[in-house]
Amino acid sequence: MTLNTSFIPHSRPALGDEEAQAAAAVVASGHIAEGPQVEAFERELAGFIGVAHAVCVSSGTAALHLALAAMGVGPGDEVVVPSFVCSALLNAVTVTGAAPVMAEIDPATLNLDPQDVERRLSLRTKAVVVPHMFGLPADLDRLLALGVPLVEDCAQSIGARYRGRPVGSHGEAAIFSFYATKVLATGEGGMVATAARSLAEAVRDLKTYDRKDDYRLRFNYKMTDIQAAVGRVQLGRLDGFIRRRREIAGRLRAASQGLPVRLPPDDPGHIYFRFVVDLGADGAAFIRRAHQEGIGCERPVHTPLHRLQHLAGFALTERAWKQSVSIPIHPSLSDAEVGRIIDVVSRLLPAP
Length: 352
Hints:
The protein contains 13 helices and eleven strands. The protein has 352 residues and is α/β, with parallel strands linked by helices.
């Protein structure tokens, strides 16, 4: 018998004929720039999140940049962000002219630690960016209680819920990414969602530089109708994506019982964008061996922000970065591929 040894990637978009047909219809229409598909995607996502306004932009980084700018964040201000996150947050804060202030994580959830955030607040703090890491809602009650405007980073968590409400509906603004590896994939693209009309109008003004009667620094951050048409199909499939992610998470969790690893929190609001385990030891060797076996396990964050900024400390983030491993869980995995993943991971994990 010949075994299937094809490589299973860490991420793979779940795209099909419906997305292809939606994109082709836009191409056939001749209107491929921002237009009616973008407007419809904005309405549909705002309705899904439960807020009044949403504005499509070109990426998640652009979404965060414009959300902060629309909130008046600029030179002399500080914005608190976790260190255990991708560099997009660092880029977006820096381009506003504000100073990013790194904060620690809760090692049990890998989300921002509200107590550490509170220690890092100052009179210059203008906002806190709160990623719901790997699909698990952050502790929004404690973060909101700090009295500082929150920007929810839902790049990894659309469809997750906190106390029964969708993430993205709790803070002053929320941002989304639709990059190829995200929960919803349009290739590139992002969104800002908010209950505040004035903030949405400011974002909408900033994302388009052309055909203005006044001059201020604006950006070419628009989404195309091709991307939006694909995004609308993906949004309609989101419930199925989340069900499949949770099914796979259940199989991975059951197969890992009794092994000496810390599993992701079993939270009902979790959508399992990533299935992240703590090995209790440096994950580099495990990742290398998994790749040799054809399974694309990875560190869930490439490099923490404090390392990029050459800052000392952040012991909890350091530990999580070294010891955490992300196991493939994307909804396009077949049952046979999930079985291969479980077989390889179970063999490579240390014995109890």
